[in-house]
Amino acid sequence: MSETPAQRETRRKDRVGEVVSNKMAKTIVVRVERRYPHPKFKKVVTAFKKLYAHDEKQEARVGDRVLITETRPLSKMKRWRLVEIVERGEAPAAEAVASATETA
């Protein structure tokens, strides 16, 4: 039995996370948070994972909350792609200082 393209698309995972690095060309590093109860102690544990995502237009900045989705392997570590920027983050202090000195 064959699948339609829409059914194939629904099997892909989506994650929302924060951009921690955008220094590579067309690649961003996204920190994704996962919360789950500890198997024995039942306390809620927060785990983080860094995922490498493809950012074709290089529009995501550090601190942004982004939506990424699974895709075919694009490189050794890159298995995700940027879908949209959910929320713009605050510019880090180094970028704010650099932009202020350029305008002065």
Task: Please give a structural write-up.
This protein has 104 residues and is of the alpha+beta class. The protein has a single domain, classed as OB fold (Dihydrolipoamide Acetyltransferase, E2P) (Beta Barrel), CATH 2.40.50. It contains 2 helices and 5 strands, in the order αβββββα. The protein has a 5-stranded mixed beta barrel. A hairpin with a 6-residue loop joins strand 2 (27-37) and strand 3. It is globular, with a radius of gyration of 17 Å.
Topology (SSEs and partners):
Elements: H1 5-10, E1 14-24, E2 27-37, E3 44-54, E4 65-70, E5 78-87, H2 93-103
Parallel strand pairs: 3-5
Antiparallel strand pairs: 1-2, 1-4, 2-3, 4-5
CATH class: Mainly Beta
Can you give the mean pLDDT? Answer: 88
Query: What is the CATH homologous superfamily assignment?
Result: Nucleic acid-binding proteins
What's the overall geometry?
Answer: globular
Tally of structural domains: 1
Q: How do the strands of the widest beta sheet line up side by side?
A: 1-2-3-5-4
How is the main sheet built?
5 strands, mixed, barrel
Poorly predicted spans: none
Q: If helices are DSSP runs of H or I spanning 4 or more residues, what is the number of helices?
A: 2
Strand percent estimate: over 45%
Terminal-residue CA separation: 65 Å
CATH topology: OB fold (Dihydrolipoamide Acetyltransferase, E2P)
Supply Rg.
Answer: 17 Å
CATH second-level architecture: Beta Barrel
Order of helices and strands: HEEEEEH
Number of strands: 5
The structural class is alpha+beta
Helical content band: 10-25%
